[in-house]
Amino acid sequence: MSLRDQVLRVLSKHETERNPDHSHDPRRRHRSINGDAAIQEEERNQGGTIENPGEIIKSVKDKLVGDANIVIISNGEGYNFRVGDSEFIAVGDFDSQSERVRLFNGAFKDETVLKGVVAHELSHLIFSRVQKKLSEEMSAVNRLVMDYTENSDPFAKNGVMSAEGTLRDEYKKRFPYYDALYDYFYGKHYKELKEKDGITPYSASYWKAHEQGNGSWDTAINETLAEISRLKAQGIKKGIPNIWRGFYREMNSLYKKTK
Ligand SMILES: [Zn+2]
Fold it and tell me: Measured in angstroms, how far is the CA atom of residue 203 from the centroid of ligand 1?
């Protein structure tokens, strides 16, 4: 298959998969609370010995997503879930439909853990909002490409894009999310992202599941970015490959443009 056929396939596949209702798919609910919501006293006591969880949550939230209107709640005991062959107990989760983060008891073990869990879950919010914009632009680019296909070649020198699917200069400003993210989601970084996966055992489990056909590429990158967010909030900088650092930076800077 030629590169241009691959690009056309990605675009049309995107079109057929657009706006699916993921809310009932447990794999789409990302384990990861509303930063401004005060945690109830009794819930606070269940979890651990953190003096001021509300302040910690708020500081992580302010730093990562600013004044985003999201709900963060403390939700008692976490549930068990599997990713491929691995079993985990939820310390938090994120529902992209309601934009709600739930924090479970395990998240309140100590301050470092709490910071990390909140940062992980908020990364899912960033991913969700940025992906929505990307999806809108993918559709718009797809319409342009189809118009070209009717009349002329979208990959020609004066067309929409190169044979690799990257936009020609005059279209880059019009589709900033597509321009910045195409290579990460669909293009040339695909292989390297996959090879440099496994930043933490948790994200590694999603890549493994993806390889075995039990999980999507989107979920694997979403969880890997969330783990990077967790590590950074916990002050751990070592061991994050450059390609992933770049991807993480891009997502966070694009998020600021979504408002
Ligand atoms: Zn997650």
Answer: 8
